[in-house]
Amino acid sequence: MNMSTLATPQVITLQIDGQDVSARADESILDVARENGIDIPTMCHLDGLDPVGACRLCLIEIEGTPKLLPACMTYAEEGMRVLTDSPRLQKYRRTILELIFAERNHVCSVCVSNGHCELQNMAVKLGVSHVTVAYRYPKMEVDSSHDRFRLDHNRCILCTRCVRVCDAVEGAHTKDVMGRGVLSAIIHDLNEPWGDSDTCTSCGKCVHVCPTGALVEKGTASSEMAKRTQFLPYLTRMREHHS
Length: 243
Description:
Layout: H1 3-7, E1 11-16, E2 19-24, H2 29-35, E3 59-62, E4 69-70, E5 81-83, H3 87-103, H4 118-126, E6 142-143, E7 149-152, H5 161-169, E8 175-178, E9 185-188, H6 205-209, E10 215-217, H7 231-242
Parallel strand pairs: 1-5
Antiparallel strand pairs: 1-2, 3-4, 3-5, 6-7, 7-10, 8-9
C-alpha cells in the first residue's frame, strides 16, 4: 500500500458565490476563495500565521446554516454552498468595523501609519465614512520604554498578529493578551514595560505585522511606515521543512 497516497488530503468540490471550485479538505474557505480570486475582507488573518478568527470581518454565509461563520476558521466540505458578499454580510462587516473604530482612539490625521494602515484602507473598501455607534474614548497608555519601538494601545485592534508572530515565528513569546473584552490589552512578559522585557529580541517582526499604528518604529515619518510582511511565508516554509 502506498502510504503517501493515504496522507494526501481529499480533493472536494464546493461552490463560492455561484462559482464551482475545487479544494482540499484541510483548506479554509478563506484560502480557497483567495486561490480563486474571490476577496473576503479580514484584519486579523495574515499568511504565515495561524488563524484565530479574532476580527470577524471574514464572516460568510453557508447554505443550510443560520449562523454566520468566519471564513478563516471554517473548512471546506463537499457540496458546500458559500456566500461571501451578500447584503447581510456587508451590513455586518460595516457594523463590525464601526465598533473597532469606536472601541479605541483612532485619529488617522495624527497617526504615523496614516496612508499605510489596513484599518484605514478597510474603511474605504467597505464604505465606512463615519461611525454611527458611540465612541468609548478610553484612556489608553502609550509604551515608549523600548529603545527602538513604541506600542500605542489607543490604536490597537487586538488582532493578536504581534502575539502570534512573536510566539510562532520568533519563538520568544514576549507578547500576550491580558484582560477580557474591551478591557483586553497587549502585554509584555508579566505585564512589564516593553523596554524592561528580558525575552524580547528586538527583531521588529511584531511591528511589521501590525495592521495599524499601534506598533511602530520610533523616529519614522508616515511615508516610511509601510509594513514589511514578506518574511512570514518564507519563515513558515522553513519551519515546516525542518520540523
